[in-house]
Specification:
The structure is a homodimer of 173-residue chains.
Chain A lengths: L12 H9 L4 H9 L5 H8 L3 H13 L3 E5 L5 E5 L1 H4 L2 H15 L7 E4 L24 E4 L11 H5 L4 E2 L9
Antiparallel strand pairs in A: 1-2, 3-4, 4-5
Chain lengths: 173, 173
């Protein structure tokens, strides 16, 4: 069955966005980057996809200006969201909110709090305390009250503590 | 290369959402449903994907409570968003806004206006006239000032006129 792998026939911003971020697993790479994951090995351990697929996804995100490679320790590159990439936060948030509303009990949801005032971010991205719409770098993600899984990869373990979005996630290996 | 087709290992609302709407072309089916596309033949003409793929996507959306089939004229089903499906609007909107910001000049963008007050919806979904965040059913989509393509499928032609989102799109065949 021939199914085109791009949306060239669709002159539409939704289709154009999906050409960049619609590939399988790509949005989970972006999600992890908002969590502060930077090392290839951490993305790999957390996502559990083949290294070749992860590498291809990162390359495509870099080619489209969503992520960038920066020198890391030990001569290995790290990966960060660019300014363009950080503007994907409303997309990631919409998927978080829709997934939570439909599939997770409140006690199994991570909460996102406004670093400046401590308020909780509601489904519409508005802080319930100060009514601002904080940028992702002003948010602290808190683990759910009830742990959802027993994954013990370095990223899952690190995210059991509150963490400032976009700040590098310190993992132990 | 083995690449899992689900995200069962990812205990996360982003992954859970993508299990429902992350398949290739699925979000464009949802986008069209917001535009008021209801007939299988209209989805098919507008998306240009094989009928078997479209049928599989619609079935999966119905199975997950995002769309529903209703009796149409001539004994053929029509497809509509459910209440759950309509809550995907912030996701679709985030992709519209990101795609417009990055890939379309202002004159090539559709505009979305608040039916009640005539204000224009800004990137954060807030009406620039009354500051409300309108539901999609309160929005009227206007064609871009500069036409982006010469598609003459029935849906593209119908959307050259302003149209109330979610209201059935009347197409000529």
């Amino acid at each position: 069955m021939a199914l085109r792998r791009d949306y060239a026939s669709q002159s539409c911003p939704v289709a154009r966005s999906l050409e960049v971020i619609g590939e399988r697993w790509t949005l989970l790479v972006v999600r992890d980057a908002f969590y502060g994951v930077r090392r290839f090995s951490d993305f790999h351990a957390h996502l559990g996809i083949p290294k070749a697929v992860l590498s291809e996804r990162l390359t495509r995100l870099i080619d489209n200006g969503v992520m960038t490679a920066v020198p890391g320790t030990g001569g290995k590159d790290c990966y960060e969201l660019t300014a363009r990439g950080r503007t994907l936060w409303p997309t990631i948030w919409a998927l978080i909110a829709w997934g939570n509303d439909n599939f997770y009990e409140p006690e199994s949801r991570r909460s996102y709090r406004h670093a400046e005032c401590g308020g909780t971010i509601a489904a519409d991205r508005i802080c319930d305390a100060c009514q601002a719409i904080p940028e992702p770098g002003d948010l602290i993600v808190h683990p759910p009250r009830r742990r959802r899984n027993t994954h013990d990869d370095p990223v899952s373990v690190a995210l059991r503590q509150p963490h400032h979005l976009l700040e590098p996630l310190v993992t132990r290996r």
